[in-house]
Design a protein that fits this description.
By secondary structure, this protein is α+β, with helices and mostly antiparallel strands. The chain has 21 helices and 22 strands. The N and C termini lie far apart (122 Å).
C-alpha cells in the first residue's frame, strides 16, 4: 500500500466516525467536533507526507548504494563468479568476463569446466566437489582457456555459499605473469646449477686474495685434484704453466703501462678493473700433464661493489685447438686449390681467347682463297669463249665443292661460337609468313633438282615469334634441306604449323623418306654423326642438326623429331609467340622538308641505320617529340652509307648486326670518306657484352648504347653528339649541315 492509499484510508476512517456520532446523537455534530476531526485529518496527512519524503530519500540512497555496489562488483580487480551446484555459471562480473575473453551474456548458464584447459579439467571437477562437500574456503591454481583458445594461468579462491543451494562463489585472478616469472626463475636456476655442476666446465671460485674457495666437479675431472686438496690451500696460479704466467704478466704490463707480478694478479688483473677477461692458458694437472684451456674470469662483488672474490670458468681447449689447426690446414689447402683454379681459369681463358682468335683468323684465311676459287670459277664459267663440255664439268665440280666447303666452314664456326658462348642473337618479333616465303624461294631450286615436291602452308594468320630472324631461317633451311636430301625418289616435303598451347607455336617439316629407328633417333643430335649416311651419295657434315638444336634452345625454344621406319620423319621446332611490331616503312626525308617554316631555325638531321622495324619505330616515336630533329633511316649498311654521303646528317645512329655489311664495316667506310668522316656515329646495338662494347669504341664509335634503349640515356647521348657535331663544324669553318 502506498502513502497516498494510507492517507485516503485515514480520511475515510475520520469521516466514518463523524457519521457514526451523528447517528448516535440523532443530531448533526457540532461545528467544534467537525473542526477537531478535520484538524486530526490534516495532522495525519502531514505525518504521512513526512513519511513519504523519508521513504523516497531512503529509496534514493538504496539505489545509489546498489549502483555503487554494482560498479564495485563489475569493475573489481578480481573476477567474481557464482556457480550452481551443477557447475553452471549463474552470475559473473565484467572483470571475470574480460579475463575469460567472452561476453557476459554468453557465459551465463555455461559450464565452468568448459573454460578449464583440458589438462586441468579432471582436477577442477575434484576440487569443485570437495568445496561443495567440505565447505569452507579453498584456493588453487588452474589453466583456463579464453575464447581464442589462448591458455592463461588463474588462481581460483572458492567458497561454498551459506544455505542449502550448494552454490559456490569464486574469486578469479590472472597469475600468468607470476607463473612465467617463476618458471623463468626455475629455468635460470636449473641452468645455473647445470652449468656450475657440469663436468664439462671447471668452475673455480676464490676469495679476494685468490685462495680457492670452490672447486666444482668439472674442475676435479679436468685437473685431477679433489676439492679438498685445493680449497683454502692454493691459488689458481699454482696450477697454471709458470712460463705462461710470466709472459702474460709482461704483456699486460706493456699493454696497461703498469707493473704486474707474474702470479695470481696476472690472471685477474683486468677483471679486478671491471673488465670481463677471457684468454687461453695451460693448466698443469695433478699428474703433471698439460691441459690447454679457455678461461673466462669475472670479479665477484658484494652489494656495495667491493670485490669479494673471483670466478674462473674454464673449458678444455684441446678440441678447439685441434679444430683450429685442422681449419688452418684446410684453409691452406683451399688457398692452394684457389691458386690452382685461378691458374686453370687463366689458362682456360687464354685458350678460349686463342680459340676465338684462331677461329676468327681461320675464317678469314679460309674464306679469302675460297672466295678467289669461287669467283674465278664463276668468271670462267660465264666467260668468252664459253668453256668446252669437259671444262664445264670440271668447273661445275669446282663450284659444287667450293660452295659445300663454304657451308662446312660456316657450320663449324657457328658451332664453335655457340660452344664458347660468344654467339650473339638479336631476339625480336619475327613474321613466320615472311620467313616461310624466303625459305620457299631458297629451297625450291634444290627440291626441283631432286624431284621432290614441297608444300608450304597457306597463310591465313601471320604469327610472330620472339626469335632471331636470321637464325630461324637458318634452322628451317637446314631442316628443309635434310628433308629433301634424305627423301625417296619423287617424295614430298610438307611444311605446316600448329599452336599446341597458348603462347607457343610448333613448325613441322614432314618428309616421306625412309624414317629412323629408335636407336638412331637417340644419336640424332650428336656432332659429326651422320647415322650411317657417310657411304651414300648425299653430302653432309653431321653438324647442321647440332647447330640447329643449340640455336633453337638459345632462342628459348625446343626442337624434336618423330619418325616411323618406312614412312618418314617429322622434325619440329617450338618457339614463343609474341605480338607483331607496328609496320614501319623506310623513312627518307625529301630534300625540301615542307614542315620547315620560313625563317625557322634549321633542322638537325639524324640518320638511323637499322633493319629491325620495331627498333626503328621506337626511335621515330622518341624523336617525334623533338621538333628540331629530322630523322632519316636505312635498312642496311650500304644504303646507310649512300644516304650519309647524300644528306650529310649531323649524327648517325648505327646498328651492329645489319644485313650485307655490318655496322662496324659501315663505320669504317664512313670514317675513310672525307665527306662523312666528321660525322659522330653512335652505336645502338643488342651486342651488350663488355668485349663487344670495347671493340665498338675502339673501332671509332662516338658512343656505344645497348638495347633495350633507355630513353633518357639515349636523348642525353644524342644531345652530346649533336653538340659535338656543331662544335666541329664551327672549328672547321665549313658548312656541315645536311645538303638541302
Amino acid at each position: 500500500m502506498t502513502n497516498a492509499d494510507e492517507a485516503d484510508g485515514l480520511r475515510g476512517v475520520a469521516e466514518a466516525r463523524l457519521r457514526s456520532r451523528r447517528a448516535t446523537d440523532g443530531v448533526g455534530a457540532s461545528n467544534a467536533d467537525q473542526v477537531r476531526l478535520v484538524h486530526e485529518l490534516q495532522v495525519h496527512q502531514i505525518e504521512l507526507e513526512m513519511q513519504n519524503a523519508e521513504l523516497r530519500q531512503a529509496r534514493s540512497e538504496l539505489e545509489t548504494a546498489l549502483a555503487a555496489y554494482t560498479e564495485l562488483y563489475d569493475f573489481a580487480p578480481l573476477g567474481y563468479l557464482t556457480l550452481t551446484s551443477d557447475g553452471l555459471i549463474k552470475k559473473i562480473n565484467l572483470t571475470g568476463a574480460t579475463l575469460l575473453g567472452v561476453e557476459r551474456q554468453n557465459l551465463l548458464n555455461k559450464r565452468f569446466v568448459s573454460l578449464v584447459a583440458r589438462v586441468d579439467q579432471e582436477r577442477w571437477s575434484q576440487h569443485f566437489w570437495r568445496v561443495q562437500e567440505d565447505g569452507g574456503r579453498s584456493m588453487a591454481e588452474f589453466s583456463l582457456r579464453r575464447r581464442d583458445d589462448a591458455v592463461f594461468y588463474a588462481q581460483l579462491d572458492c567458497v561454498r555459499c551459506e544455505g542449502g543451494a550448494s552454490e559456490v562463489r569464486i574469486a578469479l585472478s590472472d597469475i600468468s605473469e607470476r607463473k612465467q616469472a617463476e618458471e623463468a626463475l626455475l629455468k635460470a636456476g636449473a641452468l645455473q646449477s647445470a652449468i656450475f655442476n657440469s663436468a664439462n666446465f671447471s668452475n673455480i671460485a676464490t676469495d679476494a686474495n685468490g685462495v680457492i674457495q670452490l672447486f666444482n666437479v668439472g674442475a676435479e675431472r679436468m685437473l685431477g685434484y679433489t676439492a679438498a686438496e685445493v680449497m683454502n690451500r692454493i691459488t689458481p696460479a699454482a696450477i697454471v704453466d709458470p712460463q705462461e704466467l710470466i709472459a702474460r704478466a709482461q704483456a699486460l704490463s706493456v699493454e696497461l703501462s703498469t707493473p704486474i707480478a707474474p702470479g695470481f694478479e696476472a690472471l685477474v688483473f683486468k677483471a679486478s678493473r671491471g673488465t670481463e677477461d677471457i684468454y687461453e692458458l695451460t693448466y698443469i694437472r695433478k699428474d703433471s700433464s698439460r691441459l690447454p684451456a679457455l678461461v673466462l674470469v669475472t670479479a665477484l662483488r658484494d652489494t656495495a661493489g667491493r670485490i669479494i672474490g673471483y670466478l674462473l670458468i674454464g673449458t678444455d681447449n684441446t678440441a678447439r685447438q685441434r679444430v683450429e689447426a685442422e681449419r688452418a690446414r684446410l684453409d691452406q689447402v683451399l688457398q692452394d686449390k684457389n691458386a690452382e683454379l685461378e691458374h686453370a681459369k687463366f689458362v682456360a681463358e687464354k685458350a678460349n681467347q686463342a680459340k676465338s682468335d684462331f677461329l676468327s683468323s681461320m675464317s678469314h684465311e679460309l674464306r679469302t682463297p675460297l672466295g678467289a676459287i669461287l669467283g674465278f670459277a664463276q668468271l670462267i664459267e660465264s666467260g668468252t669463249p664459253l668453256p668446252t663440255p669437259s671444262q664445264k664439268r670440271s668447273i661445275d665440280q669446282i663450284l659444287h665443292a667450293g660452295w659445300y666447303l663454304l657451308e662446312l666452314i660456316n657450320e663449324i664456326l657457328d658451332l664453335a661460337l655457340i660452344e664458347s658462348g660468344k654467339l650473339s642473337l638479336s631476339l625480336e618479333p619475327v613474321s613466320l609468313a615472311e620467313v616461310m616465303q624466303e625459305c620457299q624461294t631458297m629451297i625450291e631450286p634444290q627440291a626441283q633438282k631432286s624431284g621432290i615436291g614441297v608444300r608450304f602452308p597457306q597463310v591465313e594468320v601471320d604469327y610472330f615469334v620472339q626469335a632471331d630472324r636470321t637464325r630461324v631461317k637458318q634452322v628451317l633451311i637446314n631442316l628443309l634441306s635434310n628433308a629433301i636430301k634424305y627423301n625417296k625418289l619423287g617424295g614430298t616435303v610438307v611444311v605446316d604449323w600448329v599452336v599446341p598451347a597458348p603462347g607457343c607455336i610448333r613448325i613441322r617439316v614432314e618428309d616421306s623418306g625412309e624414317g629412323l629407328a629408335a636407336a638412331k633417333l637417340s644419336q640424332l643430335f650428336q656432332p659429326f654423326n651422320r647415322l650411317g649416311q657417310e657411304a651414300k651419295a648425299e653430302e653432309g657434315t653431321g653438324i647442321g642438326l647440332v647447330v640447329s638444336k643449340r640455336l633453337v634452345e638459345l632462342m628459348g625454344g625446343v626442337i624434336g623429331v618423330e619418325s616411323t621406319v618406312g614412312q618418314g620423319s617429322v622434325f619440329w621446332i617450338e618457339l614463343t609467340l609474341t605480338a607483331g611490331p607496328p609496320v614501319a616503312s623506310e623513312a627518307v626525308a625529301s630534300p625540301a622538308d615542307p614542315a620547315r617554316a620560313a625563317g625557322a631555325a634549321p633542322l638537325r638531321t639524324v640518320l638511323y641505320v637499322e633493319d629491325n622495324p620495331a627498333n626503328l619505330m621506337l626511335v621515330e616515336d622518341i624523336l617525334a617529340r623533338r621538333p628540331d630533329i629530322r630523322l632519316l633511316s636505312a635498312r642496311d649498311g650500304k644504303r646507310g652509307i649512300e644516304i650519309a654521303r647524300t644528306f650529310r646528317p649531323a649524327v648517325i645512329l648505327m646498328d651492329i648486326n645489319l644485313p650485307g655489311i655490318s655496322g662496324l664495316q659501315a663505320l669504317g667506310i664512313l670514317a675513310a670518306d672525307p665527306g662523312t668522316a666528321h660525322i659522330p656515329v653512335v652505336a645502338l646495338s643488342a651486342n651488350a657484352i663488355p668485349r663487344d662494347i670495347d671493340q665498338g669504341l675502339a673501332a671509332g664509335f662516338f658512343r656505344y648504347l645497348t638495347k633495350p634503349i633507355k630513353v633518357g640515356e639515349f636523348l642525353a647521348t644524342l644531345d652530346v653528339a649533336l653538340e659535338f657535331a656543331q662544335t666541329q663544324a664551327a672549328r672547321s669553318g665549313t658548312n656541315k649541315e645536311p645538303i638541302q
